[in-house]
Amino acid sequence: MTVFRSVVDSVEKLVLAGEVPGAVVGVADGERQWIHAAGLDRPGGDALRPDAVFRISSMTKPLTAALTLRLVDDGVLALDDSIHRWLPELSGQRVLRQLDGPLDDTVPADKAPTVEDLLLMRLGFGFAFEVDSPPIAEKAFAAGLGMGPPTPSSIPHAPDEWVRRFAELPLMEQPGRHWRYEFSYAVLGVLLARAAGAALPTLFDERIFTPLGMNDTGFAVPAHARDRLIPCFTDGTAVFDDVPDSDWLAAPAFPHAGGGLVSTAADYLTFATSLSTGHQSLGDTQAVDRLTAEQRSGPSAQIFLDGEGWGYGVQVRSAGPGIPARYGWGGGLGTLWYAYPDHGISAVLMTQHLPPSPATVAALADPLDAALST
User: Fold this and answer.
1) Which has the closest alpha carbon to 125: 165, 81, 161, 71?
2) Which of 125, 213, 343, 374 is most buried by a 10 A CB count?
3) Residue 357 burial (CB count, 10 A)
4) Quick check: 140 pLDDT over 60?
């Protein structure tokens, strides 16, 4: 397959340049998968296996969005449901008058956030890039709500306690105003579990992983796959999360719907293929830009979306002259997925480095764009 060969060549160059010790790349066309492993599992280590297990961090979000839409189809909840229906603890939240202001200087919320607001990250709470260390972000970090390092142990609370602690804080801005990254999906995961009456890992297993045969995917590394987990690095070759004492070996107290999963290239390609060929073509529903110009104007969107749109759990790019339409998302620990709906192609790149370098992203995006733009 020509597209796959182009991507493999690009990723081999990435590894040879020393950007990452190794990488697994995969391409699927809806019927077949092609997977290639390049380099080593760690500097001076063993050859990287094609079925290596990776921490996929924010590539969890597209899976959570797909799970949400399945529950909507089944009548368990609705996109326009107030989140307070399922999370009554949050019904009293107010909104900061000023992002970097005192936590008691608040105004009433203009509206109750909806399930769709969570999918579109319009809750009104998340990363605050426009000011330096605002008191609200420091308070959320101190409360153990997940504003720190992207590891399971950064949130030591079970979901009900997590919601109780979040309810004590005001929102950063009015719900629906801007696309503000990350936090909405933590809330969404708790909501889905309550609405369906099952723990979030159980929901994923029953609704997505087991039906699709994604046996290597979960909130903890499956016992049968532990010998395939590789280390995650940061700051060059400094170890961020090692294998023997990995934070992902045990079930987390808080299964994070925004970034808690591990998976493999093959499993993720299976999920990606299901979006276009299974369950009423969920990809067609997810991959529609649903943000207004104002919602896209916030600091989070300017940093993460770079002028592109956002659907349900995926970044969306429209086709243009020499630019193929695509949707997908990446993970901050070094993973990336794109689907090209007009060509029936999905591709993943799996590395383990925080943060992924621009060269790592380009190693997948550039050959795909070049091969599919004609």
Assistant:
1) 165
2) 125
3) 15
4) yes
